[in-house]
């Protein structure tokens, strides 16, 4: 009995906190913030070029909240599209301020991007705006490419339909960007299930840590490329020390006697590293070097000076 009681004491159960499921740590949130800033730059570049007007996206914040809290922040009249997350089969949401809808539609219809009073969209305006949000989702897919997570833009959702995307108590991660156009500004928000984001981040981390496998063809290609690389090579005598008087009286035609034996070989340096001992020779119409000895890898150009010091 005492033994069983001891085992029970050692194996104390810990209550699992389901509310922490999908919770992201500080390091993961920093990684998401970096991805968000990169996405802001690519969206700015892509949509500014496509719309042919200024469309500047800036990263505002990344926060974890219950999906119900996100729903509470969505205006009654809003533009929210559902996102399907594959291969997980989960859903997220993309919200764009209606204050941006009018100038975007105006630009795509040949206007200057004039802003108007925020109002609900017509079917034609909705179809036009769908093409813009589709481009944003494409950039989103590029940012998450290494996680194998794919986002598919589905359709605009009304208030009652938005609530079906996730349970109100489900943890979510909301990315907020500020959007500035010449005559309007607003925000873009992407809300994703925290569990899906956490799973994607783990896959991205594993992908980074996994050693790359090189095929025989890629190795041969790399060796071929390296074979054409160019390195600076110099053949020189070891460094010696001479008195200043010997150097100050030098004249053209004089022979400077070096404190080196006749058998001393020169150094063949590749870059800043002494690789071989060699003797200078004539090779046809050119100078050459006859390699006599391989030098230890730790030797460097400054090694002789350091030894004498």
Summarize this entry quickly.
This protein is an alpha+beta fold.
List the helices and strands and how they pair.
Elements: H1 2-10, H2 26-51, E1 56-66, H3 67-73, E2 79-86, E3 90-96, H4 98-108, H5 123-143, E4 150-156, H6 159-162, E5 171-181, E6 184-193, H7 194-209, H8 216-227, E7 233-236, H9 244-248, E8 266-270, E9 273-283, E10 286-294, H10 303-308
Antiparallel strand pairs: 1-5, 2-3, 2-4, 3-6, 5-6, 7-8, 8-9, 9-10
Helix pairs in contact: 2-5, 4-5
Describe what you observe in this structure.
With 309 residues, this protein is an alpha+beta fold. The chain folds into 2 domains: 23-204, CheC-like (Chemotaxis protein chec, 3-Layer(aba) Sandwich), CATH 3.40.1550.10; 231-240 and 261-309, no CATH class. 38% of the residues lie in helices and 27% in strands. The protein is built from 10 helices and 10 strands. Strand 5 and strand 6 form a beta hairpin. Helix 4 (98-108) crosses helix 5. The longest helix is centred in the first third of the chain and has 26 residues, at 26-51. Residues 303-309 have low confidence and may be disordered.
Strand content range: 25-35%
Q: Determine the CATH topology of the largest domain.
A: Chemotaxis protein chec
User: What is the H level of CATH, i.e. the homologous superfamily of the largest domain?
Assistant: CheC-like
CATH architecture of the largest domain: 3-Layer(aba) Sandwich
User: What is the CATH class name of the largest domain?
Assistant: Alpha Beta
> Biggest sheet, strands in spatial order?
1-5-6-3-2-4
Shape: elongated
Distance between the termini: 77 Å
Poorly predicted residue ranges: 303-309
Task: Compute the number of strand runs.
Answer: 10
Number of domains: 2
Helix percentage: 25-40%
Mean pLDDT: 83
């Amino acid at each position: 009995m005492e033994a069983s009681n001891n085992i029970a004491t050692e194996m104390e159960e810990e209550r699992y906190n389901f509310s922490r499921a999908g919770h992201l740590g500080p390091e993961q949130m920093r990684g998401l913030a970096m991805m968000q800033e990169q996405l802001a730059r690519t969206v700015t570049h892509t949509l500014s070029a496509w719309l042919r007007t200024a469309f500047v996206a800036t990263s505002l914040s990344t926060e974890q909240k219950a999906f119900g809290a996100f729903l509470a922040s969505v205006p009654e009249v809003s533009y929210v599209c559902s996102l399907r997350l594959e291969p997980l089969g989960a859903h997220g949401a993309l919200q764009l301020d209606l204050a941006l809808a009018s100038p975007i539609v105006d630009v795509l219809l040949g206007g200057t991007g004039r802003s108007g009073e925020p109002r609900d969209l017509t079917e034609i305006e909705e179809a036009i705006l769908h093409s813009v949000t589709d481009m944003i989702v494409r950039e989103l897919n590029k940012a998450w490419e290494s996680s194998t997570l794919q986002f598919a833009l589905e359709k605009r959702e009304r208030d009652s339909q938005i609530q079906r995307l996730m349970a109100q108590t489900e943890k979510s991660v909301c990315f907020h960007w500020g959007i500035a156009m010449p005559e309007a500004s607003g925000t873009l928000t992407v809300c994703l299930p925290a569990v899906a984001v956490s799973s994607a981040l783990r896959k991205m981390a594993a992908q980074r840590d996994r050693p790359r496998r090189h095929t025989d063809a890629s190795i041969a290609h790399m060796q071929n490329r390296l074979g054409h690389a160019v390195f600076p090579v110099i053949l020189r005598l070891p460094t010696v020390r001479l008195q200043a008087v010997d150097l100050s009286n030098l004249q053209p035609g004089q022979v400077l006697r070096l404190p080196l034996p006749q058998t001393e070989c020169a150094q063949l340096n590749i870059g800043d590293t002494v690789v071989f001992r060699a003797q200078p020779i004539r090779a046809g119409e050119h100078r050459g070097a006859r390699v006599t000895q391989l030098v230890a890898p730790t030797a460097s150009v400054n090694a002789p000076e350091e030894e004498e010091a």
